[in-house]
Amino acid sequence: MFADPGAETTPFLYRIRCRHWNGNFAKSKRIFKNQNRYCSKGIFQGIKANGEKFNREWLVYSPSTGYVFVLSIQAEKEYWKQVLHRCIEVIKTLSERGLAFRGDNEIIGSPNNGNYLGLLELIAKFDLFLSNHIENYGNKGTDSTSYLSKTICDELILLMGKHVLQSILDEIKNSWEAHATAVSAVKENGESIEEALAHLESKEREKSDTR
To answer: 38-43 — which CB contacts under 8 Å span 24+ positions?
Structure first.
């Protein structure tokens, strides 16, 4: 059962994916010129100039009020940010422990879908947001965006790896710059390069001995 976007008790982030496009439109009844008018599935789809159909993703229906809500782009971005946040935390947990990600399949609910999907399913038992997301988007195939696929997982791992590598390179660069500054300062006091490097080496050895 999807949450009702019109209910006051439904958290905002859950509302943006509870579209109810196939829901009961009974409460949408409006009387116009002595005729009963109802909301229909047709308003949630549009047709481009070339005849291609598309979903109006920014519209969502509330079965309890009979109203159609318009979503903001910012809310949509926040929704997917929350999904990615959970995916990244699972990736970090598996990577830190050196555990495999893949299973024999990518089917939500399968005991053989691997540690990545398995952990997301476990979190969903205690996380209503993720539970709703998996219910709405799990096992929908490649035509539906879910951020649960191995493709997105691989892309996140690649981006996280680049971020870690850049952090290491920045740390090395800062370390060398600090050493260069120290050498320059020692040279100004009349020591040779060899004496300056020996001085730095001695300082590094003293640090190691005190650890």
So the answer is: 39/66, 39/68, 43/68
